[in-house]
Amino acid sequence: MHLTFLTPLGGLLAAGALVPLAALALNERQARRARRALALEAPVARSRALTLLALAVPPVLLGLALAQPVLQSTRVAHVRTDAQVFYVFDTSESMRAATGRHRPTRLERAVATARRLRNSLREIPSGVATMTDRVLPNVFPTSSEEVFANALSDTVGVNRPPPKGFNDTATTFAALDTFAGDNFFSDGIRRRLVLLFTDGETAPYFGGDLHEALRGKPPTRFVIVRLGGSGERIYTGGKADRGYRPDPAAARETRSLASVLGGRSYTERDVGSVLSAARLFLGRGPIADVGQGLHVIALARWITLAALLPVLGLLWRRNIA
Fold first, then answer.
1. Out of 15, 95, 112, 135, which could bridge 107 as a Cys pair, Cβ 3.0 to 4.6 Å?
2. Phi and psi (nearest 5°) for 269?
């Protein structure tokens, strides 16, 4: 970690400290003459020193703030070189459903769960994708926590993008055949994991075709997180959408998908088991330093606030103490 000044010429303002000091020296000189003429004692040296500091410190600190000091440090990313994870989100309309008017939606809960899992699997390069009747990558696997977090907050939303078709149920698990081959994962990656967040409401599909499509090597493993319950509704303008009712077959469809894919299926309440299954599929592998990230802490605003303290102290002594 080292200190750097982005605009060092701004530090010239620190020379402004000479102005109040010169004024104080002139005032002290005149006061000394007056005390001699009136035979008065000089004020306590400590009091004069505090006044001196209160006048000199603010311009020095403000000059330092204008120089824009920053602390810079580099971070080495320790990541698995043989494994990658894709966090895939069902973004169909039913993912708007929630347990109440002002409660988090299924998709919001899915994103929050993904953040927790990513924090526990941070050594695994992670990507983000969305799914309805097609799977589209938002961010390919990356070791950058910032890129991943921004992808979750900026690119994942209901109907973003909308499905191509016009079926009443937009999602179809058949779209997962996109993960066959190297379309999503980097070439040479042996441990491939998809964490799928869905409410399980899918259009009909042929499980045999999906199983056949994903039989290739290296295999892609799936851990499915099902969100939602029978009491949830879609709320628009504070009112429940009367046209929507949760699919009672959603839980069964999710378990069936896990069986077809040779994966695991859990509810959103069982995050611990989801993490355990993910770690089981990912196993252990080589870890390498794949790059460095620059971390910057700006100090200017804190120094500016510190510059106010001597002035406030001087006013307090003058008006209150």
1. 95
2. -80, -10
